[in-house]
Amino acid sequence: MGIAKVEDIIGQTVRRDIGRMKRFVAGQLEAAARSIMSTPNAHVGIVTGFFIRNAVPPSPETDGLGGMAHMAAALANLGIPVTVISDAPCSKAVWAVTTELPKGVALEITSLSAASVKSLRGRLSAGERPVTHLIAIERVSPASDGKPHREYGADMSDDTAPLHLLFDDPGWERPWVTIGIGDGGNEIGMGVLPEEIVRDDIPNGRLISAAVPADYLIVSSVSNWGGWGLVSAMAMVAPKEAAVQLLADFTPDRDRAYLTAAVDVGQAVDDSRIDRPATPKMSVDRLSWEEHAKVLGKLRAHVDGYLADLQRP
């Protein structure tokens, strides 16, 4: 089944049925992977960090951080420059994870102001190796009311830099290909979905539905899994030697290291409810690390089997 099987693994039903979202974006995972792998002198930016004010302590979610780490490690191991991007409220956890990544992965942190984001935009598009692809993973998007919302509807405007301006801004000509990865309908990239899908399939969908689109959208049951899916797909469309490099750190052991750094150093938290504030622990979207490791292992086994089949006469 190739990459379609990867889509099935990352889109399996966990907390909610994302079947309609998954079907709408079928094929975009492969298209995104091919876009990166076929671009000469690629430079990939990865935007992440979903801040939770009512967590104890106030911190970003663990989701998104691990997916960012696997994508950054895979690309850096292949020799593709990577710039990880976040904002001040999420900086400690994002920085902590980047300390586990290969040397050469750059980190950019903005303040909460639009001016800071626009200044970064200018730097990313300039220089000898400007950004060619920008990925958002588990990064909130403004909704139709212009405000970014938590899944239960809370306004996050005071906690979130407008990093969506790197993806969409009226009157600005975007110089890079954009990829969105999300699981809840309120993330950057989800703006390409028909309104009724998020409205009808996601709690509070009418209010929280993302307005910011992306050239390619990857939908997964946990956003980290979408990042894993992109690593898998890139390896499956790459030449053999490149696939080996892409997969060098694509293991449960490395994933545990990324999550440990996020939690122990960065104080990242699991999904926090209004009535049950989250605290730092080794889980993502209310699933233990061991449960996530099984999904990563399943993906790795599928990719290894697919690549082995390609080598058979």
TrEMBL record:
The record places domain D-glutamate cyclase-like C-terminal at 19-300
Name a Pfam family for this protein: GLUCM-like_C
Residue ranges crossing the lipid bilayer per the database entry? none
- Taxonomically, which superkingdom? Bacteria
InterPro entries attached here? GLUCM_C
- Known PANTHER family for this protein? D-GLUTAMATE CYCLASE, MITOCHONDRIAL (PTHR32022)
> Can you say what this protein is called?
D-glutamate cyclase-like C-terminal domain-containing protein
Organism, as annotated: Caballeronia udeis
